[in-house]
């Protein structure tokens, strides 16, 4: 539902010990404010090549995960990019991880021969996504990299259990990568977790003008008290929970959205207009 509350007034003075600023689309602009990693999962890649290839090139660490390696190679081939050509070396992933049950060995060997580090992660108690985050954390530590964000390419279509497993990994991100922010990136949306505290999310003007969608989703447990500003339908010390009130199909009244929450909550937003930014 879009209209989440009948009270359009908002308490303007929201205070909290934590205050986190999000500029989620900065990495797609000329001046990314921090170093970031890109992880390609075994999901369809539906990005405009002029957007995705530039985004990949600017990443500090690049990773493909199991069958995502084959998908990445196919995507490059569709853009007539030959990874064996030294001029295209920037498209070779730094790391290839996973249990390697979804990628033909010859593709793994091909990338290994031109510079990728192969890390097999056979542990079946964790998903390949989870294991990839652990490997990025290890890589960051051993190479002394000050990484700010990890963008994980994963479409939100397909098997529902996979979609939910990916959300579960977001909830585990603290234990996996510490303070590095993990943002899931589909061709039409971005999704991440907001920890307890105050958050300021800066929305590109085009998304405000186009009334692009956004939502706040209380996975796992009830969010007892959450307040927002900048949305068309704001929350004012509201309780949101599945089986009760949740905030979906919301949109923006301002280019700055604030969220003050007492409980971890999922923020998701449409980016269908990314190609025009």
TrEMBL record:
Region (Disordered): 1-22
Keyword set includes Disulfide bond: no
Keyword DNA damage recorded: no
BP terms from Gene Ontology: thiamine diphosphate biosynthetic process; thiamine metabolic process
UniProt xrefs under PANTHER family: THIAMIN PYROPHOSPHOKINASE (PTHR13622), THIAMIN PYROPHOSPHOKINASE 1 (PTHR13622:SF8)
Pfam families (UniProt xref): TPK_B1_binding, TPK_catalytic
Source taxon at top rank: Eukaryota
Residues covered by the Thiamin pyrophosphokinase thiamin-binding domain: 197-265
CDD domains, per the entry: TPK (cd07995)
Name the record gives this protein: Thiamin pyrophosphokinase 1
Segments of skewed composition (Polar residues): 7-22
Species: Mycetomoellerius zeteki
Keywords assigned: ATP-binding, Kinase, Nucleotide-binding, Transferase
InterPro entries, A to Z: Thi_PPkinase, Thiamin_PyroPKinase_B1-bd, TPK_B1-bd_sf, TPK_catalytic, TPK_catalytic_sf
Example GO molecular function: kinase activity
Coiled-coil blocks: none
